[in-house]
């Protein structure tokens, strides 16, 4: 194990375990008001302020050039067909950009097209080897499973913040809890989220190249969300806490009437604290890929430079070599080569003589 | 020049990362794996800062004393001017999807050639000086001090990126290493670190008109020579006019097309095609270069060279511009040219083919048409008569050049032309994951086609060559077609090394070769003086005589 790996893997792991301990012992020490009210409010404040601050930071820098990455046939000659795929991968209108971005954000289309390349022995080739490329969907599956499970779990949690619970939340719960062989019903998304996280973590650890590039900033959110997931699962399936009391706390928070009812297990405060940390961490981390993807100039622009001018706000005049610079330098030679000139050699000579006389 | 190891040796790529973490390893500047430092004269010609003599393998790069402040100040400046840079620094999640997409990673196995980590080389410095977390947590936040070693590392790896954008296609957020490479090279230039191949080309282009540094009269000579070659082989004179005011079309193509084989055969193809059409066109000794090495080193230098195109079109009073087969030229033309210029070039007219009457609406503001668009339109309208049997000796596969593929999207036009000028069943695609938007770079674009860089070039081009090998073995492919002059300069040595059975050809070369002219000589050879199918014996007899 390299020192690099040790630092980037174990420090975030220790940090998350430390956070768990802080919240657990804090709740045991009756600091429930801090962990149940103060920190969640602070977290929400930091989350939104941070999010807005970071987006403003990005937007303050202009997009000087229109540089979409094109991955399909452009529309040029009308008789060359462009398929739906071409329009999405090489958008030339605003609507097509919306389509491209929509599929990117909702379906992770780029990851879906991921490939894997491997060097294979090939004895009948003189060089003895060949690169083979194939479609590789695992990262897409892992990523989309994790993200959607997380989304559904967040939506399910709205049951704590709505009174009476909104109808669609019930709907989600019913579908998600379709596995009714157990009591309480096991939510599919709980399994999918933990499985997805495990996969995302495992690939960083088992693939040597992935392990080599991974930083603390990659492990920390994984551990943190794993911590949230595991505490959540324990709270639901094993150490059941007083749900009514939790709901009271949640409703109190959203109605700005905070109360901390008695009887909530310390483990719940661990769960809530980790969620709060996630919110606070979000704007200052790579998790900003969520709003960031919408701003990516390689994806959110139409490939229509030849039809519409893209203005660079800081475009400035540059020094360049003019045609007359060339002609002045090579006039004689150009004349002899029969290249048309702006000023024929005799005229240029006369002008030069006149200038010398003046001096 | 350092000897390049054999293909058998180079293809044994080791993808196992070193035991030490990436912040602890340093590049080794071994001959064959770095580009030479730029001579000071080139920098002086384009008023670039800190011209001096320095050498890459030497420990002391003679940096200006306040180099660190300069680089950081320049980085801050770029962050404030390019949202892309800020965003790409901030949102990468290191998912690794880009890792095995880079031809340099696949060819070298060096983990710092995974785009994610190459970007991290810059990002780590950004975190250290511009992000609170990096300032406080340092290494734990993936931040590191900007040292001379870090700068050297940038130099090493930013010149193992050909700005091909393959990583950007596969990145879920579109993070584009190309963008970071150009801006990173700008930072290097700010303290006088440039490579010879780039700066020599840029300065030559700036002062004389083309990368090869040919003065106007030599430019005319070279093209006239190719016109004479056309006449010798086909019996058809294809004279060219230069700097002719009032011509309808200004034709601009990269210098690679008139300077050296096999690009020159493509040039002959252009001239034949234009003659066939009796096109009212002219070429310019001033806008004599389609390619733009300036853009490989900075946006500003890109603009300083590119501006010649519109300026010359304006001076000559042409109606529109026709652009030759070139990769990065078309990235610049498609994505930067108008923005550089700042205003729509209203002194030009919406391009209209004088032969077919087709109005190129898709270029109505830009006023410039790609030769493949132009030719495909001609063929579609039945304006060209081909004898495809003249290309019967060619079994072709097509290499999508990175920039027209991933910064424009011109896939079908060249394929349509290919299918029209080749006999049926002579065109074979490489495996789907290696063409179109997933195409692999030639390995030496972005000013890396320097001879002293051969070993790394051969490694970087391995993924491309490997796909060519595949179709060569499977279908007997013997030609690799492309619409890029830089490819025509870089692919021949690449294939000579990996797949020597395959030659490189431009698409318009095959067009010119197949065009049937009234009153032409009976053709027994192609434009390269190679016997046509059915005339091999005649050729041998001639040789015997």
Concise description?
The complex is a heterodimer of chains A (359) and B (545). With 359 residues, chain A is mainly alpha-helical.
Helix/strand order of chain A: HHHHHEEHHHHHHHHHH
Radius of gyration of chain A: 31 Å
By CATH's scheme, which homologous superfamily of the largest domain in chain A applies?
Transmembrane di-heme cytochromes, Chain C
- Helical fraction of chain B: 40-55%
The chain-level mean pLDDT of chain B equals 95
How many DSSP E strands of chain A? 2
Gap from first CA to last CA of chain A: 79 Å
Q: Mean pLDDT across all residues of chain A, rounded?
A: 93
Major β-sheet of chain A, in short?
A: 2 strands, antiparallel
Widest sheet, order of strands of chain B: 2-1-3-4
CATH topology of the largest domain in chain A: Fumarate Reductase Cytochrome B subunit
Strand content of chain A: under 5%
What does the overall shape of chain B look like?
globular
């Amino acid at each position: 194990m390299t020192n690099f790996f040790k630092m980037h893997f174990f420090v975030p792991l220790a940090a998350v375990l430390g956070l768990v301990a802080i919240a657990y012992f804090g709740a045991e020490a009756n600091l429930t008001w801090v962990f149940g009210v103060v920190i969640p409010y602070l977290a929400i404040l930091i989350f939104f302020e941070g999010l807005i601050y970071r987006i403003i930071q990005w937007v303050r820098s202009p997009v000087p050039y229109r540089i979409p990455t094109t991955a399909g046939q452009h529309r040029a000659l009308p008789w060359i067909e462009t398929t739906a795929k071409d329009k999405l991968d090489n958008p030339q209108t605003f609507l097509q950009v919306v389509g491209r971005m929509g599929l990117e954000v909702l379906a992770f289309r780029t990851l879906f097209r991921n490939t894997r390349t491997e060097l294979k022995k090939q004895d009948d080739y003189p060089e003895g080897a060949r690169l083979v490329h194939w479609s590789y969907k695992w990262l897409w599956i892992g990523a989309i499973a994790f993200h959607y499970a997380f989304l559904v779990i967040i939506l399910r949690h709205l049951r704590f913040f709505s009174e009476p619970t909104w109808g669609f939340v019930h709907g989600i719960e019913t579908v998600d809890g379709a596995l009714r062989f157990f009591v309480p019903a096991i939510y599919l998304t709980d399994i999918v989220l933990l499985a997805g996280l495990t996969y995302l973590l495992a690939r960083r650890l088992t693939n040597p190249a992935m392990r080599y590039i991974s930083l603390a900033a990659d492990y920390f959110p994984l551990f943190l969300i794993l911590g949230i997931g595991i505490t959540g699962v324990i709270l639901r399936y094993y150490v059941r806490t007083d749900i009514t009391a939790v709901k009271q706390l949640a409703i109190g928070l959203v109605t700005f009437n905070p109360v901390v009812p008695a009887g909530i297990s310390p483990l719940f405060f661990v769960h809530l604290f980790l969620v709060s940390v996630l919110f606070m961490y979000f704007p200052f981390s790579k998790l900003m890929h969520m709003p960031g993807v919408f701003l990516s100039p390689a994806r959110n622009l139409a490939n229509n430079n030849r039809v519409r001018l893209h203005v660079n706000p800081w475009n400035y005049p540059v020094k360049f070599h003019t045609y007359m610079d060339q002609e002045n330098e090579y006039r004689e030679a150009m004349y002899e080569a029969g290249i048309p000139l702006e000023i024929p050699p005799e005229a240029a000579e006369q002008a030069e003589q006149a200038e010398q006389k003046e001096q | 020049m350092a000897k390049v190891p054999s293909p058998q040796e180079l293809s044994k790529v080791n993808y196992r990362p070193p035991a030490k973490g990436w912040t602890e390893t340093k590049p080794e500047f071994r001959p064959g794996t770095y580009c030479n430092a730029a001579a000071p004269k080139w920098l002086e010609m384009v008023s670039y800062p800190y011209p001096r003599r320095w050498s890459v393998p030497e420990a002391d790069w003679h940096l200006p004393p306040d180099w660190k402040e300069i680089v950081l100040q320049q980085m801050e400046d770029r962050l404030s001017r390019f949202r892309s840079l800020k965003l790409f620094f901030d949102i990468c999640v290191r998912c690794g999807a880009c890792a095995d997409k880079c031809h340099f990673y696949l060819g070298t196995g060096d983990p710092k050639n995974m785009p994610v980590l190459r970007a991290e080389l810059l990002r780590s410095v950004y975190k250290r000086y511009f992000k609170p977390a990096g300032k406080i947590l340092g290494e734990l936040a993936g931040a590191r001090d900007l040292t001379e070693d870090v700068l050297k590392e940038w130099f090493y790896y930013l010149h193992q990126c050909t700005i091909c954008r393959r990583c950007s296609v596969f990145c879920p957020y579109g993070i584009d290493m190309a963008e970071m490479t150009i801006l990173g090279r700008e930072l290097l230039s700010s303290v006088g670190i440039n490579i010879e191949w780039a700066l020599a080309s840029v300065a030559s282009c700036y002062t004389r008109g083309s990368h090869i540094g040919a003065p106007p009269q030599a430019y005319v000579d070279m093209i006239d020579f190719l016109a004479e070659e056309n006449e010798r082989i086909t019996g058809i004179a294809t004279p060219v006019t230069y700097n002719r005011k009032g011509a309808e079309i200004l034709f601009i193509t990269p210098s690679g097309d008139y300077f050296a084989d096999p690009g020159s055969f493509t040039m002959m193809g252009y001239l034949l095609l234009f003659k066939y059409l009796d096109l009212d066109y002219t070429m310019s000794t001033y806008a004599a270069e389609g390619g733009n090495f300036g853009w490989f080193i900075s946006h500003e230098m890109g603009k300083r060279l590119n501006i010649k195109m519109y300026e010359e079109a304006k001076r000559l009073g042409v109606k529109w511009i026709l652009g030759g087969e070139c990769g990065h030229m078309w990235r610049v033309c498609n994505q930067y040219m108008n923005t550089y210029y700042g205003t729509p070039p209203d002194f030009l007219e919406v391009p209209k083919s004088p032969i077919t009457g087709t109005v190129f609406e898709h270029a109505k503001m830009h006023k410039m048409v790609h030769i493949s668009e132009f030719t495909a339109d001609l063929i579609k309208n039945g304006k060209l008569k081909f004898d495809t049997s003249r290309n019967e000796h060619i079994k072709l596969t097509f290499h999508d050049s990175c920039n027209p593929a991933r910064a424009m999207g011109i896939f079908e036009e060249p394929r349509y032309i290919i299918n029209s000028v080749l006999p049926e069943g002579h065109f074979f695609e490489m495996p789907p994951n290696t063409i179109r938007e997933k195409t692999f770079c030639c390995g030496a674009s972005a000013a890396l086609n320097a001879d002293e860089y051969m070993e790394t070039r051969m490694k970087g081009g391995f993924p491309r060559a490997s796909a060519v090998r595949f179709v060569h073995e499977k279908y007997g492919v013997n030609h690799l077609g492309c619409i890029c002059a830089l490819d025509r300069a870089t692919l021949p040595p690449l294939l000579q090394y990996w797949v020597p059975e395959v030659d490189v050809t431009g698409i318009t070369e095959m067009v010119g070769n197949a065009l049937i002219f009234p009153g032409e000589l009976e053709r027994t050879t192609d434009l390269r003086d190679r016997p046509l199918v059915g005339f091999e014996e005649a050729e041998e007899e001639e040789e015997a005589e």
